[in-house]
Each structure stands twice: as structure tokens, then as C-alpha cells.
Design brief:
Blueprint (H helix, E strand, L loop, with lengths): L16 H4 L3 E2 L1 E6 L5 E6 L2 E6 L2 E8 L3 H9 L1 E6 L5 H6 L10 H5 L3 E3 L6 E3 L4 E11 L11 E13 L4 E2 L2 E2 L1 H4 L3 E2 L4 E3 L4 E3 L6
Length: about 200
Amino acid sequence: MFYDTAANRHGLPHDPFKAIVSPRPIGWIGTQATDGSLNIAPYSFFNAISDRPKLVMFSSSGYKDSVRNIEATGEFTASFASRNLSEAVNKTSIAAPHGESEFAIAGLTPIDGTLVKAPFVGEAYAALECRLTEMFQPKGLDGEPSDNYVVIGQVVGIHIRDEAIRDGRFDMATVRPLARLGYMDYCDGGDVFQMVRPTR
């Protein structure tokens, strides 16, 4: 089959675009607002984009608390999303009111960064401390900015739990990274499973 994305008439029950661009690592983004409130949210448009310097990016559909907090403070963390924490990752996707901590909703331990004030997930196998380098709204072919916000940060510090290191490596068999597929599907390098995003 072929379809023109301008009309998006694919004839399928669900748009297959995000299923084709998969698996996608999940950026579990931690921020702190200027009022001190904490926020943690998963983003499946996330990846490393450079090693020298170490840069990561995520894209938010809309101007959400994560974007607002990073724009105000210039700092964020990216906690490692793993299979054993998949339910907690899913719980933090809830659209909680500003100021209500998703850490508390998911029963997670917020840990202050060493070099940044933004918190990371204490239960995560690893976490990146980041400082904002760029934020922008990408444009389409019409030249108009989208409703998405691309956030790029330089990694200034890395936390790794001792049990995640085996034979001098960050061990994938131990940490089982969680990735987003299309629709409600996720994978951990082996099994494919589904999770429905909570509404409250």
C-alpha cells in the first residue's frame, strides 16, 4: 500500500506512522518548577543525538509542564526507563494538574541532581543530568511552526546503579530497556506487551 500523508487516507483503523518509526527509547524527563514543585513525565520522541558533546533531545506535543519548567530553569534529567519500572513509567504519563507530583502518583523516589536541581527517579538503573542548550518549535513544509517543542540538553552528569554494571558494561540483560512501539505496544528487547495510558 501507499498513501499520501497530506490526506492521511491509509484506510487502517489507526495511523501506522509511529509504529513504523519504532522502537523508540523513552525519555523519562524530570524537572523542577520555579515554585519548587516536581514533575516527571515519559516522552517517546527521545534519543541521544551526539556523543561529543553528549547531547540528548526530546519532543513534547504541546507546551507541557516539562517544557515550561525547562524553559524557566534550563535544567532537566532523563531517568532510564526499564521493564521493571514500566507500570510506574505509565502512571507518570497521566495529565496531572500543575504542581501535583507524578513522583508521588507513581510511588517513586525523587532524588536531587548533583549538578542540576531537577530530580531523577531513585529507582532507575541510570539517569542523565542535563542543561538546556536549545528549545524550538520545528516547522513543516508550509514554514509554520508545529505545536511540538524540541528540547535539546547537554548531559553534564550520569548516575548508574552498581547492579546495572556487569563486566565493566551497562548490562542490557539486567536493565531491560523499555521502548515504545506503535499504538499501545511496548517492548523490552524481547517481549512485546501493551499498556493503556491512564486518564486519572
